[in-house]
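Re: [help] complex structure
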Amino acid sequence: AQTVTQSQPEMSVQEAETVTLSCTYDTSESDYYLFWYKQPPSRQMILVIRQEAYKQQNATENRFSVNFQKAAKSFSLKISDSQLGDAAMYFCAYRTGANSKLTFGKGITLSVRP
Amino acid sequence: SAVISQKPSRDICQRGTSLTIQCQVDSQVTMMFWYRQQPGQSLTLIATANQGSEATYESGFVIDKFPISRPNLTFSTLTVSNMSPEDSSIYLCSVVTYEQYFGPGTRLTVT
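Output below.
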């Protein structure tokens, strides 16, 4: 069974600084997708970034980038120039096929200090 | 992309009653997913709903407790039956087009 592990329950970052959120996963599949979702207090799930396992290049979306280490089954999210609006719960998630279910980690609460 | 709406956005219900949550998508989708998020927890998949077939339930979830309907490619309902305080959660509808999109959720409190 696929599992997603986020071992840090909480993190804090100073505004304008950089923070890295960790995620590891376990799978026997060779083809899969990894995601980071953000859930602010409004509870709307927002896709932050997506990584296809077959791509060696790390995904980047503006201030958000990932460090994807396939052999180590590690998928960390780096947030640069942190902003107050980045404060939220962040979930790492895994999916195999295009129409298969998402498996989520437990999430990490990120706070941003002004 | 897909825009998803859910009704109601929140509700407070008495134990022993049932609540039906509606999910409407602005485009036709093959599969819809229903997730539960208990307070302070992650999302757990309840079931996957395909149009024209019975929903597929995850371990720990049963049809008698969480009946699901999927009458067409843009709509689904989840009923939480015979509710107890342990059912107090956020219930989220989700669809996959290219990405996976989520509705705004329904916050259910059972007293």
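Chain B has a mean pLDDT of 94.
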